Amino acid sequence: MTCLRCGFKFNCICAMEPQLQSAADFVLLTHARESSKDTNTGILMTRTLPSCRVEMWHRTQPPQALLNQLQDPSYQAWLVFPSDEQHLATPLTLPTPDSTKLLLIIIDATWQEARKMVRKSPWLNQLPRIALIPENTSSYSLRRNQQPGHLCTCEVGIELLKQLHHPQAAQQLQDYFTHFIEIYHADKSGHAK
Question: Per residue, what are the HEC states of 40-65?
Fold first, then answer.
């Protein structure tokens, strides 16, 4: 029987799920096509980080809850996205304890879709950007045509946790992600690992 939480039939991974904490809030701005894919790794972040939530992206209707949060002076919002000529990426710095809380918005889509989402969302273009320079290459292998140097959503979360000085949480999420990738292949082949 398929597990309703992790989606695996032969190899439930729920017992491996860590419970993590972070100094920042995370929002996965998710493309509609991404939300239904069983290869989506953003779900690993929402399961493990209570400070992580999903907002669905629609071209003509921005998510009102997120727009409201962007107007809240108690948050310092950043778009996690590669820099280009118009937007210089800035290193991630933690706010002081008596100041604002970090709000990290991660585009949860293929890179082709992500670029279109940002281009078609003027409200996203107003945000400062963080471009990650990962220490390692991506180990995400569940989709074809992955562009070199790009990370999947969960790997972005892992890198952000490292930059936020949460090495233990980053390692736990990395272990959970690695386990997910390994189990995915076995489960889709129809056998227990």
Answer: CCHHHHHHHCCCEEEEECCCCCCCHH
Domain residue limits, the chain = 21-34+43-78+99-130
DSSP 97: T
**Closest residue by Cα to residue 43 from 32, 33, 30:** 30
Averaged pLDDT, 29-36:
87
Cα 105 to Cα 127: distance, rounded to the nearest angstrom:
10
Distance in angstroms (rounded) separating the CA atoms of residues 76 and 99: 9
Checking if the pLDDT of 106 tops 70, the result is yes
Euclidean distance between CA atoms 177 and 164, whole angstroms: 19
Question: Against a cut of 0.85, is the pTM above it?
Answer: yes
Mean pLDDT value across residues 106-133: 87
